[in-house]
Amino acid sequence: MSTTTLTPAPAGSAGPVPTKAAAADEGRIGLRANLRHIGALVRRNLLQIKKDPESMFDVLLMPVIFTLLFVYVFGGSVGGSLGGDRQDYLNYLVPGLMAMMGMNIAMAVGTGVNDDFRKGVMDRFRTMPIARSSVLIAKIVVELGRMMVAIAILLAMGFALGMTLGTSVLGLLEAVALSAVFCAAIMWIFIVLGLSMKTAQAVQGMGMLVLMPLQFGSSIFAPPQTMPGWLQTFTDYNPLSNLADAVRGLMMGGPVAGSVWTTLAWAAGITLVMAPLAVSKFRKKA
């Protein structure tokens, strides 16, 4: 389905005149109008969640399940490797889980975009006089909101189990913001996957194949020094390790500058490459 439609040319004109939808596709919409469109689409996506509250189950339950599972199943042994006990592992784990939450939620953007195309929703958007990027940005904004809910529950669980904040509330807020920035970048990757694959199940399957090695081959769940040498090398270059280390430093104290700047560089690089690709594929998708 083409996003550009033409109206008959007025008498004496050189050719057909693009409609507003075509103009939008060419990026002629102003910033203020674009923000209005994003706001309207965000409201539309939130209404979808209201009509389907089950879509929030993963956000509500995932932080609880992961925290209890890892603290009480692995906390004793991994806590010992940290030179402490289960409580020390809780302080190590929660910042790592904060970094991980966004990755799992990012996958929902790709499956959602794929599902909307399958249902014909995106085809209707493409015929409207709105910037193509606004449709995708609205998806990201809503999923970032879901991520904030998951992080709030995760932190509540952590503090209820005895987690102690080693820095300050400002450091905690900086950790949340850094996680959100990196998560938003990863969402562009999943949008491209959602636009490239035939079914939402395929997007989810491919996403798990990518995320599982990155998550478990990182410093999210365990310190790299407990891993074999070859895996430590992978962990050192894993962007999720940088994110987890940065979040952990901002929340618990310790050197953070290197990890923070590396994480921001990854986020910027991913966004600069994947965001234009996602918008281009959105325009061209039949």
Structural summary, described in words:
76% of the residues lie in helices and 1% in strands. It is mainly α and 286 residues long. It has one domain (28-284). The chain has a two-stranded antiparallel ribbon with strand order 1-2. Residues 1-26 have low confidence and may be disordered.
Alpha carbon gap, first and last residue: 5 Å
Number of helices: 11
Radius of gyration: 22 Å
Alpha-beta classification: mainly alpha
Amount of helix: over 70%
| Uncertain stretches | 1-26
| Content of β-strand | under 5%
Spatial sequence of strands, sheet with the most strands: 1-2
Question: What value does the average pLDDT take?
Answer: 84
| Principal-axes shape call | elongated
Question: The biggest beta sheet, please?
Answer: 2 strands, antiparallel
- Note the run of SSEs as H and E: EEHHHHHHHHHHH
Number of domains: 1
The number of strands is 2
Can you summarize this structure?
This protein has helices at residues 20-25, 31-51, 57-81, 86-118, 121-126, 132-161, 169-196, 200-216, 229-237, 239-252, 257-284; strands at residues 6-7, 17-18. It is an all-alpha fold and 286 residues long.
